[in-house]
Amino acid sequence: LSAWAPPFSTFIIGTGSTLTHCAATNTGAAGIDAQESTIRDCTSSSNGGNGYNLGRSVLSDCIAAHNTFDGIKASNSHITGCEAWQNGAIGINVRSSEVTDNGVAQTTGHGIEVIGSGSLVARNNVQTNSVTGTGAGIRVTGTANRIDENHVTDEVVVPAFQDVGIEVTGAGNVVVRNTAHANGINYALSG
Question: pLDDT tens, 173-182?
């Protein structure tokens, strides 16, 4: 199943739906919008908005690449086994979600950004993000989140900027068992 019809086509997935083995390419908006759904083995690339917009959904083994804004934007969702690369804003942008076992690379902004509370970000491989300025491999601004066992490398793309491997500005977060290497600043933890 595929969608290619500029400028404003998209997959819109309703409650209780399952979408598998699909591609959303070159749409003028988000590639795939899903609420309370399951999406597996899909690709969302070169879209005019976010690759995926998710609410209370499960996204697994998917690709988000070359989208104008975020690769994956989600709230109250579970994202696992996915790849997000070369997106125009943030690789994976979440609120109150689980983000596990993903790869994020070469985004324009932060690799993974966590806002709000109650997220788990674990076992992700994040590298070479913030390609046009200062940013972080993993950035946490919310509270009561767990950042565990991630690997963040090479966040210094533009030598004049001091990109951060893992940046936490919110209070009450747990940050354990992560590795950060070859970043402008490996860890910036406050809050």
Answer: 999 999 999 8
